[in-house]
Amino acid sequence: MTKFLKLASVSALGLALTACASTYGPDKEVNKAAESAAMKSAEMKSAEMKSEGVMFGGAMMFPTKTIVENASAANNLTTLVALVKQAQLVETLSGPGPFTVFAPTDTAFSFVPAETTSALMQDENRELLQGVLTYHVVAGAITSADLIQKIESGGGSFTATTVNGAPLTFRVMDGKVKIADANGTLSTVTSADVMQSNGVVHVVNSVLMPK
Fold first, then answer.
1. pLDDT tens digits for 156-172?
2. Tens digit of pLDDT for each residue in 103-153?
3. Between 3.90.180.10, 2.30.30.90, 3.40.50.720, 2.30.180.10, what CATH number should domain 2-204 receive?
4. Contacts by residues 6-14 (CB-CB < 8 Å, ≥ 24 positions apart)
C-alpha cells in the first residue's frame, strides 16, 4: 500500500506539473542581447542585495538570517516551509551551507493537486518528500549573475547537480532565467538573489520534479 501511495504521489505530481508548465526543448534559441542585458541587471541587483535586505512576501528578508528564518517570515512561502518541516530538513537548511534554493511560492504549489500535497505530508512518504525538496537545492551560493555567466560560458545552457543528485538545466529566454527539470517542465525565476546568511534563494513559479 505504501509503495502504491508513493508511486501514485509521484505520478500525480508529475502530471500536474506537466499540464501547468511549458515544454522545454533543445531547439530553443537564446537571445544573446537579452542574455547580456539580463546578466548586467543581475550583477547590479545581486551587489545591492548582498549588503541590505529585500522585501518579499510581506516581510523583510535579511541577509543575516538563515534560509529557514527568512522563508518562515514570508507569507507566500507557507507551503514550502510546512513541507520543509515535515521533511525534517529545517536543521539542514539552517546549517552553514552555503545553499542555493529555488523556492516555489504558494501559488506554484497550488498547481499541484491537493491530494498529492497531502500525501507528501504523510510520515510514510517523508523520504519521497525529501527527494522532491532537495531537488530544489544546489550546493554553494549561486547568484543570478553567476547563473547567467555559466549559461553564457556553456553556449546557452548550464546544468547543475542538485543535492538530490538529479540535474537541473538553466537557460536565459526573453531576458529571464528558466529552469528545466528532469521531466522537461520549465520554471521561471521570478525573484532572484534573496541573500541569506547561509546561501541565496531564487523564487520560482512552479514546482520542480526529478524523474
1. 999 999 999 999 999 99
2. 999 999 999 899 989 999 999 999 999 999 999 999 999 999 999 999 999
3. 2.30.180.10
4. 6/125, 6/128, 8/119, 9/116, 9/119, 9/120, 9/125, 9/128, 10/128, 10/209, 12/113, 12/115, 12/116, 12/119, 13/112, 13/113, 13/116, 13/120, 13/132, 13/207, 13/209, 14/183, 14/209
